[in-house]
Amino acid sequence: MNKTPARLMSLIPSVTPKLIRHGSTSLQSNKVKKVAVLGASGGIGQPLSLLLKLSPMISNLSLYDIQHAKGVGADVSHIETRVKVKAYVGNDELADALKGMDLVLIPAGVPRKSGMTRDDLFITNATIVADLVSACAKNCPRAIIAIIANPVNSTVPIASEIMKAYNVYDEKKIIGVTTLDVLRAATFVAEAKGLDSTRVFVPVICGHSGNTIIPLLSQISPPVPFSQPELDSLTYRIRNAGTEVVEAKAGAGCATLSMAHAAARFSFSILDALNGKAGTIECGYIASPETEFKYFATPLLLGRNGVEKSIGLGNLSEYETKLIEQAKHELNANIEKGIDFAKQYLSKSR
Ligand SMILES: NC(=O)C1=CN([C@@H]2O[C@H](COP(=O)(O)OP(=O)(O)OC[C@H]3O[C@@H](n4cnc5c(N)ncnc54)[C@H](O)[C@@H]3O)[C@@H](O)[C@H]2O)C=CC1
Ligand SMILES: O=C([O-])CC(=O)C(=O)O
């Protein structure tokens, strides 16, 4: 397990202000970027498209879905910001939606219903992600691909295998979006400890399902002590937060509004970093040659080409080391399932 001594804490002030803004206000044309949302008509896609339309860092917003995208595009395009919006519907328009993109966000795919795990979505979402990433490989091979569609632990390995098969793989550019776990951790810990949630940062590592969601409460900024019962209950709530929303929505889907905000925050950090802003950090799930896992979420230093490097895990407490041990089987199984699927998909489709 990598234990990078470079400390996270010194870099954290660059993270928190992004909670309440729409990105840097640079209007230089070389700094504005082109962004696509695939699955733009969905519960996440619509509010995400709205938030992106408000950003001065974006010149063009490409909204793609298999249904209703023209309506979403017409609606969002009436907002008086400079971002040019174009909508695309159906496979015949997918290539045009992707050409020239710097960042592609993928919230396309079915959400959970009560009683389902994220892995239960694999059967539908694996093919959706594989199809969409194949189109990215052909039409915008240098774009950063941010995968929101669940199960993220498997869809990111699928995306990587597809890009490898097209000889356009760059491990710096395929990232599973785990930002919502980080936002939830800050919110829940702040509530429990009477802190200002916009000033709290808790790294969340490992993966994005069940036991693989591991908040590093020992590395919270600002430093706060926790009793063992507090560690247990906060870890449980952060891990279970997706299910909390699925159950509260009672059949009407999963987290969409908080996820749209999380994805927008992640996007603005990526765009800031592409524009050369130093010290931009977000957690994300990526290929991880430096850990014992093929893919792993850590805090990431972002740069001009995507992920500059993983910040690593820091000094884990005994409790956190045990949580990683307990997550091993689930994470590895999710990763191998994605890789196996991609092999079969590629053997059929090429
Ligand atoms: N990474 C994370 O933290 C989170 C991930 N999610 C995941 O995000 C995904 C989307 O969730 P919602 O927006 O609530 O679902 P939704 O069902 O409201 O929207 C999904 C959209 O994808 C579209 N779609 C389906 N197949 C497509 C294809 N081949 N190409 C383009 N678009 C396609 C649908 O038409 C629909 O508009 C789910 O898999 C969900 O589990 C949700 C919350 C948090
Ligand atoms: O729980 C779900 O199905 C959606 C999700 O990933 C989350 O809210 O973290």
Oligomer: single chain
Per CATH, the architecture of the largest domain is: Alpha-Beta Complex
Helix/strand structural class: alpha/beta
Spans with pLDDT under 50 lasting ≥5 residues?
1-21
Q: Give the CATH H-level superfamily of the largest domain.
A: Lactate dehydrogenase/glycoside hydrolase, family 4, C-terminal
**Bound ligands:** 1,4-dihydronicotinamide adenine dinucleotide, oxaloacetate ion
Overall tally of structural domains: 2
Order of strands in the sheet with the most strands?
A: 3-2-1-4-5-6
Global morphology: globular
Instruction: Give the termini distance in whole angstroms.
Output: 37 Å
Mean pLDDT: 93
- H/E order of the elements? EHEHEHEHEHEHEEHHEEEH
Overall description:
The chain has two domains: 33-177, NAD(P)-binding Rossmann-like Domain (Rossmann fold); 179-331, Lactate dehydrogenase/glycoside hydrolase, family 4, C-terminal (L-2-Hydroxyisocaproate Dehydrogenase, Chain A, domain 2, Alpha-Beta Complex), CATH 3.90.110. 41% of the residues lie in helices and 17% in strands. The chain has nine helices and eleven strands. The protein has helices at 45-53, 69-77, 94-98, 122-139, 152-165, 179-193, 228-249, 257-274, 318-349, and strands spanning 33-38, 58-65, 84-89, 103-106, 144-147, 174-176, 204-206, 213-215, 280-287, 295-303, 306-310. The strands form three sheets. Strands 3-2-1-4-5-6 form a six-stranded parallel β-sheet, with helices on both faces. Strands 9-10-11 form a three-stranded antiparallel β-sheet. It is globular and about 55 Å long. The model is unreliable at 1-21 (pLDDT under 50). Bound molecules: 1,4-dihydronicotinamide adenine dinucleotide and oxaloacetate ion. Oxaloacetate ion is lined by residues 111-112, 118, 150, 180, 242-243, 245-246, 254-255. InterPro entries: L-lactate/malate_DH, Lactate/malate_DH_C, Lactate/malate_DH_N, Lactate_DH/Glyco_Ohase_4_C, Malate_DH_AS, Malate_DH_type1, NAD(P)-bd_dom_sf. One of its GO terms (molecular function) is L-malate dehydrogenase (NAD+) activity. It comes from Rotaria socialis. Keywords: NAD, Oxidoreductase, Tricarboxylic acid cycle.
